[in-house]
Structures are given as C-alpha cells and as structure tokens.
Amino acid sequence: MKTDAELRTDAQEELNGEPALNSSGIRVAVNDGIVTLTGYVNSYAEKEAAEHAVKRVSGLNAVVEEIEVRLPSRDEKADTDLAEVAEDALAWNVWVPLDRIKITVERAWITLDGQVDHYFEKEATESALRRLRGVRGISNRITVKPMPSAKNTEAEIAAALRRNATLNAQEIIVTALGSKVTLTGRVRSLGEREEAARIARAAPGVFEVENLIRTGA
After folding, report:
1. Containing H/E element for 159?
2. In this structure, which topology does domain 150-215 adopt according to CATH?
3. Residue 168 DSSP symbol
4. Does domain 4-69 have CATH number 3.30.300.130?
C-alpha cells in the first residue's frame, strides 16, 4: 500500500514524463489516496493529457482535476471562428453523425447537444474537438437512444470485458437498468477501471455508466 507521499511522487513523475504536456504549471496534492490536480496549462488537450497521465499511476483511489486552461494570445479565437473550425473538424470525422449534432460556443467553451445511436459516437464527437486550438473546455450534452434489452446488454458487456487482455473480468460485475449500466468489483488501477467503463459505454443504447469499481489488490 503506497503512502500519500509516494503517490504524489509517482503522479508528479508521470506528469513530468508525459511528452504531450508541459507540467510546470500543474500542482499535485494527495490525501487518502485521492489526487487533486490544480494550476494551469495552455490548452484543453494538455488538461486532458494530465488527467490521463495521473490515472496510469497504480494505487490511486480517485483523481480530482481542477486545472485551468490559460490560452496563449496566439491561440485565442472569436467564438464564431471557433464554431466554424469545430464544425469542420466534425465534418471530417467518419464516426460523427453531423446532422444530429448542434454546436454552441461561448467564451471559447464548446457545448454539444443532440442524440446519437451509440455512446462511441458521443465520445467521437467530443474527441474530435479536444485538440483544437483555442478551446477552453467542452460540455458534452449529447444523449444516446435507449437500449432495447438490459439483460442482453449485460451479457454483451460481460463478454467484451472477458475478451480484453488487460482486465481481470472475473472481478467485474455488470448491471443494466434502462440505459444505465453500473459496474462493480475490483481492478488493479484507475487505468483499468477507466478501460472497463470505456467497454461498457461501447454497448448499443448505453447512455450512462456508473463506475463503482474499486482499485487495489
């Protein structure tokens, strides 16, 4: 079992070693296995990279990400210009049903609305915008059509978890109710916990995943 001091050191080293990130403006604090990231970065893409980097550290209970995006003057855009760039980015992504998505931009913050058939389309829409210059944040309010059968969804997700070589699927329990899936059990790291949630979100009709999986031995 790692101490908070050890977890803080590991998290800081993981941030420092992430090539997609300048970690000099990020501060790391750990309390009872929960990491809190504060400070600032120069892009939304770096903000995301910082969170993913820390989640690779074993032994963490949770990550609280409170990093501010401070855009360099060269990356600042008018909201109308950023909206046009965002629409173009979605138009070139084959996984995005552009005709079902509405984009709103206010003070460099993008809000997504609409309805899609699969959760991966919701994720693909947001993912296409995360690395655009001039983005301070994204609110993804896209909904997913309800699933036809909860029992079938449970079986489909459980089978997908078993096929994944990085997970011990025997320790994960899947429960579906309507369009919501709940995951319980235990895995070794926050990265594995996140991977299990990603697999669950890929099932047809899943709109919400409550990830209650615990980490640790």
Report:
1. helix 150-163
2. Histidine-containing Protein; Chain: A; (3.30.1340)
3. -
4. yes
Side-chain half-sphere exposure of 185, counting CA atoms within 13 A: 21
Return the CATH number of the domain spanning residue range 75-144: 3.30.1340.30
List, for residues 78-107, the tens digit of each pLDDT value. Answer: 999 999 999 999 999 999 999 999 999 999
- Name the pairing type of β-strands 208-211 and 214-215: unpaired
pLDDT single digits (tens) 25-51: 999 999 999 999 999 999 999 999 999
Q: Where in the chain is the domain with CATH 3.30.1340.30?
A: 75-144, 150-215
Q: For residue 157, which amino acid is it?
A: I
- Cβ(161)–Cβ(122) below 8 Å: no
Give Cβ neighbours of residue 51 (< 8 Å, ≥ 6 apart): 37, 63, 65, 67
Q: Helix, strand, or coil here: 75?
A: helix
In this structure, the strands spanning 68-69 and 34-41 are parallel
**Rounded CA separation 210/17 (Å):** 31
